[in-house]
Design brief:
The structure holds 2 protein chains of 2 kinds. Chain A is α+β, with helices and mostly antiparallel strands. Chain A has 1 helix and 11 strands; from the N terminus they run H-E-E-E-E-E-E-E-E-E-E-E. Chain A is elongated, with a radius of gyration of 29 Å. Classes of the chains: A alpha+beta, B mainly alpha. Chains A and B meet through helix 1 and strand 4 of A and helix 3, helix 4, helix 5 and helix 10 of B. FE2/S2 (inorganic) cluster binds next to loops of chain A.
């Protein structure tokens, strides 16, 4: 092979690759921009990083000992939307003897089905794969001491706070004491509890 | 060398080739003969194909973000642009890609006509190309609506009304397009389905046919070209690839340099000067020229005749060869038509550029767009849709109400009607000071319909010092912030000292006994304006001289408050 011939070969293959590159740039460029735009959601922080609460009722509506199911309207933003009436989840709430409140997310920590409550309002059972939880949200065990059902952790507790409506009503009665429950969702299927 | 083991890569390629005929396929394209040798004039088709691929890629990615419903479309675009990584760029690429595509399409068309490439045996491919062009224009038209901003919405309304004007089938066609007699929730689903599925699918089909036929029939070489052929690869391939990249580069430059317009969310209750994209401007201008009964000539007859003539071009051209000389009878009319279209388009653009009225309304529209975007970023969009954004912002809401209910009579800095005072600067010390100098200019009470012209006289004779103080006194009374307290106090003394003024005006907050001169207590304040909007003809205000309509029934009290909040910002103008 003479050096002139070798030169021609490399030159030709260089132009060949360059041609392919030029032809592919539009498709590659557009795909790259588009791919970044959809992958970006992984890195976008949730719009509402701060702890949020939803008002669920006045204090005296809650009974001691048995749980009541309430819906949570946190008024949170959903991408471009803000809808104060959007229901973001539900909770089981009860009044404790000391005057404090306990609340659990209704989502099963296994894979997120809604756990059902028994008629007395004191124990929970998940209809999907049969996990059972007692009144304190702990997983129940069978007579052999084995945990019933596949849930990897106990029910997820939600923070509760008491607030005052602030304004006296028109007939002069004092401001109401209202119960507010935290709006939160948790990673399912893990033994550790992680907020998402 | 022969004994060297085959690399994995080669084995893979060979295996694939055995099963698919891939290499033979590529070869048949690479070796496909280019009549007369590689030429730049053959690149437009490839550039167009590449533009189409880019539109599909960016369009599919846009579809990941876009929400095609009346209440969410605009918001999802704002979110895309403001929050999504490279979202603004993605949308800009699709928007400018569409423009570049139409541009390249026009060049491709011109090249084909010049070359005589529509002639036998390529008549069918010529018609396929025309149909594909029609689909591209329909894609552009349907896409324009999707962001559902004022521009897209109103331009689409015009296009739909034109369709409806076609005798016979018009109204039914519109009903099918928008899913009913009126534009609504279903219309968005239909336009989106057309834009993102039906039209691209149909176009892809035509494009494949088109390319297969080009491969089969080859390109048309210029008459004078040597009768030798050259394989497509590498010299023609290089030219084509460069053109593809150049079209994309132009798209990127436009996308980054110009940005993509997004006006305020479409609001059927607001006026807007609908304008189509540049490639539809010639038709738009034609409609301006052909009024009344001639409408159909512009919308149906002329475009129809032109389209028919193009379809029949291969048969209208009787020349035996593709020599340019022998085909002047075809080439000249086609290019003449293009030139006429270009001049119509240019005229439309120039008319707008030279119309202060249009420019003013566009700058209004851009301001409204900025405000809407700011509100959307701040508080999100209510489920009732983006036109309800403004209701949380009294000034923005008030501005819209002002434009709708007040501007026909009251201008702001010359922008609006002439039959009532211009309200720019209203209630500022400067506004009062100039009023004192000459209340009978057209800015104040000297406007066209004034009946009180001359009723109030210049009080300039009091001298600048006193009048500046008096102006501060009134501005303070009108709740202007930042008025110098000392000056206002002095103004109060002036007011009390000049009994001549008390002869005409009262300062009690109650009806004036004379019944047609406003009481001045709190003049221009929110409270004063609240009473005034309800009953401007009350004896406390302009009484029998009043010419302003009452807004007691035209606006709710919340709406009146919003207008007043907007009026309270006019001192800035
Ligand atoms: C030749 C092909 C196409 C052309 C000429 C075209 C043209 C357009 C135009 C002019 C717009 C308005 C852009 C703006 O100003 O905001 C648009 C918007 C849009 N197009 Fe296409 N398009 C094409 C293909 C596609 C495809 C294949 C898809 C999806 C599969 C798609 C999805 C969209 C979406 C979601 C929008 C709304 C987003 C926005 O307005 O920014 N397009 N298109
Ligand atoms: S989801 Fe509740 S047990 Fe599986």
């Amino acid at each position: 092979m003479t050096s002139g011939e070798a030169n021609r070969v490399t030159r030709r293959s260089f132009i060949g690759w360059f041609t392919l590159l030029l032809g592919a740039i539009p498709a590659i460029g557009a795909t790259a921009v588009g791919a970044v735009s959809i992958v970006g959601s992984v890195f976008r922080r949730a719009a509402n990083g701060a702890q949020r609460f939803a008002r669920v009722g006045v204090v005296r509506e809650f009974k001691m000992g048995s749980y009541r199911r309430v819906e949570l309207c946190g008024g949170g933003a959903d991408a471009w939307r803000r809808d104060a009436a959007r229901v973001e989840g539900a909770a089981y709430v009860r009044l404790e003897s000391g005057g404090s409140f306990t609340a659990f997310s209704t989502r099963c920590p296994h894979l997120g089905c809604e756990v059902a409550i028994d008629d007395a309002g004191r124990a929970f059972r998940c209809p999907c794969h049969g996990s059972e939880f007692d009144a304190s949200g702990k997983r129940k065990r069978d007579s052999a001491g084995k945990i019933i059902g596949p849930a990897p952790r106990d029910l997820d507790p939600l923070a509760v706070r008491i607030a005052s409506t602030g304004e006296a009503s028109q007939n002069g009665s004092p401001p109401q004491q209202v119960v507010e429950v935290e709006v939160a969702t948790f990673q399912t299927g893990t033994s550790s509890r992680k907020r998402i | 060398m022969g004994s060297a083991p085959e690399s994995t890569w080669r084995r893979l390629v060979r295996g694939l080739d055995e099963r698919t005929g891939l290499i033979a396929g590529i070869r048949s394209f690479a070796d496909s003969p280019v009549p007369g040798g590689a030429r730049w004039r053959y690149v437009f088709g490839s550039a167009l194909l590449s533009s189409f691929v880019t539109q599909i890629v960016t369009g599919v990615f846009l579809a990941f973000h876009f929400s095609p419903t009346l209440n969410d479309a605009w918001g999802s675009i704002v979110y895309l642009e403001e929050k999504v990584a490279l979202g603004r760029e993605l949308r800009a690429l699709h928007h400018w890609g569409a423009n570049v595509m139409v541009g390249v399409m026009i060049l491709h068309f011109a090249q084909v006509v010049l070359a005589g490439a529509y002639k036998r045996p390529r008549e069918l491919n010529w018609i396929i190309g025309l149909a594909a062009g029609g689909l591209v224009l329909m894609l552009a038209l349907t896409g324009y609506l999707l962001p559902l901003d004022e521009r897209g919405y109103y331009a689409t309304q015009v296009a739909l009304n034109i369709t409806a004007s076609v005798p016979g089938v018009g109204p039914s066609a519109v009903s099918i397009l928008q899913g009913g007699a009126r534009f609504g929730v279903e219309s968005m689903s239909r336009f989106y389905t057309l834009h993102a599925m039906v039209l691209p699918g149909a176009l892809a089909l035509l494009v494949v046919l088109h390319v297969v036929f080009v491969h089969r029939l080859k390109v048309t070489a210029p008459f004078s070209a040597a009768a030798t052929n050259e394989p497509f690869w590498p010299r023609q391939a290089f030219r084509d690839a460069l053109a593809m990249s150049a079209a994309f580069a132009l798209t990127v430059v436009l996308a980054l340099a110009v940005g993509t317009p997004l006006l305020a969310p479409a609001d059927p209750a607001r006026a807007f000067d609908a304008r189509p994209e540049w490639y539809f401007l010639p038709l738009f201008e034609l409609l301006k020229l052909l009024e009344g009964d001639l409408l159909l000539v512009g919308t149906v007859v002329l475009p129809g005749v032109a389209a028919l003539a193009l379809v029949l071009l291969p048969w209208l051209d009787r020349a035996p060869t593709v020599a340019t000389r022998s085909r002047l009878r075809v080439i000249i009319p086609v290019f003449f038509g293009l030139a006429i279209a270009a001049s119509l388009g240019a005229k439309a653009a120039l008319d707008d550029a030279n119309s202060p009225e249009y420019q003013r309304r566009m700058s209004d529209a851009h301001r409204a767009a900025e405000r809407a975007r700011a509100l959307a970023k701040q508080g999100g969009i209510p489920p009732s849709g983006p036109t309800h954004l403004y209701e949380n912002d009294p000034v923005a809401h008030g501005e819209r109400l002002f434009l709708r209910h007040c501007r026909d009579c009251h201008a702001i800095a010359g922008d609006g009607g002439r039959s009532a005072p211009d309200l720019a600067g209203y209630r500022s010390p400067k506004w009062y000071r100039e009023f004192f100098r000459d209340p009978n200019t057209t800015k104040y009470y000297g406007h066209e319909e004034s009946v009180s012209k001359g009723a109030m006289k210049s009080i300039e004779k009091l001298g600048d010092e006193k009048l500046v103080a008096l102006a501060a006194f009134f501005a303070r009374g009108a709740e202007m912030r930042g008025v110098d307290e000392g000056t206002a106090k002095r103004g109060e003394t002036v007011w009390k000292g000049e009994s001549c003024m008390e002869l005409c005006h009262t300062f009690s907050g109650a009806a004036n006994p004379s019944g047609n001169v406003p009481d001045l207590k709190g003049h221009g304040s929110r409270g004063w304006l609240r009473g005034f909007l309800v009953a401007p003809g009350d004896a406390r205000f302009f009484g029998k001289r009043n010419r302003m309509p009452s807004f007691r029934d035209k606006l709710s009290s919340a709406e009146r408050d919003a207008v007043i909040e907007f009026v309270a910002t006019l001192h800035e103008k």
